[in-house]
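Design a sequence for this backbone.
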């Protein structure tokens, strides 16, 4: 395989640019041509495809977001859209594609694979909810962003003797809430994977205030419910004092990636090129126990799901 392409799709994640850079530099090192595709699958179908050089990715590793842009394109779920995308790739002489993104992006790569076109998925999503990998690109940065906010909210929470409900991202996985909550010393961590009881939470808050506790921090993953809704439900179950809500929102997707995310993205991007160089497609790149792995993308998405570390959740309950 001598000519490949790279795209980013779905929600942006810090480290995507580092992954693109690694794909380009590694491909050029292997005497391969590499093309960029703007706006994900929408750009693929539209033919928004162009050559990438080493200069094009210079200084990109430190930048958040994705310079190839991203766009939702539900039409790619249909066979007509998939075949139109493949036709554009073939028109440019492209023999394989690296897809950087989350669950929806992976399903697009799986469809290309089913049509016999070599695609390799690289996990780029802050939610850390992709099967076949311990960590996804952008997760570490998002957690650090959330921890920074939690630390700041603790200061104002103590100053006013308040309870804060802090909503973080994570629709189907509570990994951001769990890791940021433990790192930030949250009193309660609410995630989709574990049931909770409002009455018990209220009781613990009230007991804390009786002991002289000056603040409470409750971290809620958006997949459970919105922060405002959670706060309203909490009030219905008892007096929790002065209650405020902070919704972190899209700030978790932005900012310069951490060193860990830059290294992870670089390793995964280069590994994806190695796979395509050896004419291996239909694979999902991951890291397990700090070692890079490649799994069959169809089998991975069909038969596996991401598992949140419930031992870590148990620890959060024991030390909160």
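Sequence:
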């Amino acid at each position: 395989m001598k000519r490949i392409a790279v795209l980013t799709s779905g929600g942006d994640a810090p480290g995507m640019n580092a992954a693109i850079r690694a794909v380009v530099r590694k491909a050029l090192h292997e005497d391969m041509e590499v093309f960029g595709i703007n706006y994900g699958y929408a750009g693929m179908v539209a033919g928004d495809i162009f050559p990438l050089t080493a200069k094009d990715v210079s200084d990109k590793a430190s930048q958040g977001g994705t310079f190839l842009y991203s766009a939702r394109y539900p039409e790619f779920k249909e066979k007509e859209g998939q075949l139109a995308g493949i036709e554009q790739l073939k028109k440019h002489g492209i023999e394989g594609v690296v897809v950087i993104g989350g669950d929806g992006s992976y399903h697009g790569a799986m469809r290309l694979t089913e049509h016999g076109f070599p695609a390799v998925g690289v996990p780029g999503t802050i939610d850390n909810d992709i099967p076949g990998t311990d960590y996804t690109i952008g997760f570490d940065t998002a957690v650090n962003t959330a921890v920074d906010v939690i630390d700041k909210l603790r200061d104002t929470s103590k100053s006013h003797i308040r309870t804060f409900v802090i909503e973080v991202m994570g629709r189907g996985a509570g990994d951001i809430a769990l890791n940021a909550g433990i790192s930030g010393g949250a009193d309660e961590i609410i995630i989709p994977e574990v049931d909770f009881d409002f009455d018990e939470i209220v009781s613990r808050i009230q007991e804390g205030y009786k002991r002289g506790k000056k603040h409470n921090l409750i971290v809620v993953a958006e997949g459970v419910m919105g922060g405002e809704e959670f706060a309203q439900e909490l009030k219905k179950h008892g007096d929790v004092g002065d209650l405020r809500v902070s919704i972190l929102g899209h700030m978790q997707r932005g900012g310069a990636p951490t060193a860990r995310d830059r290294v992870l993205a670089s390793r995964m991007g280069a590994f994806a090129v190695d796979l395509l160089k050896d004419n291996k497609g239909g694979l999902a790149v991951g890291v397990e126990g700090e070692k890079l792995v490649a799994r069959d993308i169809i089998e991975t998405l069909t038969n596996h799901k991401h598992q949140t570390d419930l031992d870590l959740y148990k620890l959060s309950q024991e030390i909160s």
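The chain has eleven helices and eleven strands.
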